[in-house]
Write a structure and sequence with these properties.
- The protein is an alpha+beta fold.
- The chain has 10 helices and 14 strands.
- The strands form 4 sheets. It has a 4-stranded antiparallel sheet with strand order 1-12-14-13. A 4-stranded mixed sheet has the order 8-9-11-10, with helices on one face. It has a 3-stranded mixed sheet with strand order 4-7-6, with helices on one face.
- Strand 13 and strand 14 form a beta hairpin.
- The longest helix is centred in the first third of the chain and has 20 residues.
């Protein structure tokens, strides 16, 4: 008799609980709601449909992330600027009336001919400047093209051209920086300003240290690249054509990287964010040494159970989003425990919890299949 009574009580209790599930939840929060809020670390009770994903009176498993939808920022995908078509570092070669024909000529005589006979400019040449010149122009060139050509000739012979007050100076390259060339500020090539010069270039988006790493392989004597980390500026010195070429390189790489990058914050509903991040990284080859190791980056945020994705190209962010949707699958039979919250109207939550714990942990005897609930 005692066992039969326990069976009836168990079935009646389950029927009562199932009936209570169909009762709509109260509009105002109850003490049980406040207890649930404390469980989630909230200062106020959770509403009937909350941003945490817990739905009171339903059997929907909660979302562990505070985010409900992915947060995306789609970039342009451009990491460098297009090269300038102005030809700032190229010597003008338009048609003109100047012809240069020298065969193993003394460098001092070449300088004298160009400045004295062709350009009719005042000049001064250091006695230490020595060399031999062979140059032939196949067609006449303009007078504007003569100075850049002379600079190239001097550079190949270890000399430099410096613009002084009222005259040009030809000096050994290792002494060009001490001749008092006035520095200029800005990143635009100095059109028509021939001669050794110094240019100070403020950087907007990239650090001076990184730009110097890029410029060093392209810098040859007498040109120099120096940086000021505190002010984030690059100081270029050298012949005009060399400095202009370095300026063009800076313009290509000094771009807003964040504008080109794409970001996404993806809430994870069912899977563990750390495990999911590792699985997707292996699939895409984002691991160290993989093809996308520096192209796509994953940052798991355990506190939010969300995954931050940083991608160079928008298409990579879309690919990761699709994979997250497929990998983040939850099932009722999964190993992760689920939390369900029910609002009680006619009984104390602690008493019901004790009864259910006794039933499902072996405190009661299960009824045989097909037995009536009485």
């Amino acid at each position: 008799m005692h066992t039969s009574g326990a069976r009836r009580f168990g079935w009646l209790l389950i029927a009562a609980l199932l009936g209570a599930c169909t009762t709509p939840p109260p509009e105002k929060p109850t003490p049980a709601d406040f207890r649930a809020a404390r469980t989630y670390g909230l200062s106020e009770p959770l509403p009937a449909t909350s941003s945490t994903g817990v739905e009171f009176g339903s059997v929907t498993p909660p979302t562990r992330s505070a985010l409900r939808e992915p947060v995306l920022k789609i970039g342009s995908g451009k990491r460098v600027a297009s090269a300038s078509t102005s030809g700032g570092g190229t010597a003008p070669t338009g048609a003109g009336d100047v012809t240069l024909n020298f065969e193993s000529a003394d460098l001092q005589e070449v300088v004298k001919t160009i400045f004295g006979d062709i350009l009719r400019e005042n000049y001064e040449i250091d006695p230490e400047v020595r060399g031999s010149v062979t140059i032939h122009t196949t067609m006449p060139i303009s007078r504007e093209a003569v100075l850049p050509i002379l600079e190239s000739i001097l550079q190949s012979n270890g000399a430099a051209l410096v613009r002084g007050p009222g005259l040009y100076k030809v000096v050994p390259a290792n002494r060009a920086a001490q001749t008092g060339a006035s520095p200029m500020v800005g990143g635009a090539p100095a059109a028509g300003a021939a001669g050794y010069g110094v240019r100070v270039v403020p950087l907007q988006y990239v650090s001076a240290v990184e730009i110097k790493k890029i410029l060093d392989p392209f810098t040859v004597e007498p040109s120099k690249v120096e940086i000021d980390e505190a002010r984030n500026v690059v100081m270029l010195s050298g012949p005009r054509m060399s400095v202009d070429n370095l300026l063009e390189t800076i313009k290509i790489f000094d771009v807003d990287w964040f504008e080109g990058m794409s970001f996404g914050i993806f809430p994870i509903e069912y899977a563990d964010v750390g495990t999911l991040s590792e699985e997707i990284a292996q699939v895409l080859g984002v691991t160290e040494g993989g093809p996308l190791s520096k192209i796509v980056r994953f940052i798991p945020v355990e506190r939010l159970n969300a995954l931050i994705v940083v991608a160079n190209q928008p298409k990579h962010l879309k690919l990761v989003a699709d994979l997250i949707e497929h990998f983040d699958r939850g099932t009722q039979a999964g190993p992760t425990r689920r939390l369900f919250v029910y609002n009680l109207r006619h009984a104390e939550a602690e008493e019901i919890a004790t009864m259910l714990q006794d039933i499902f942990e072996g405190g009661g005897t299960a009824a045989p299949a097909g037995a009536p609930p009485w």
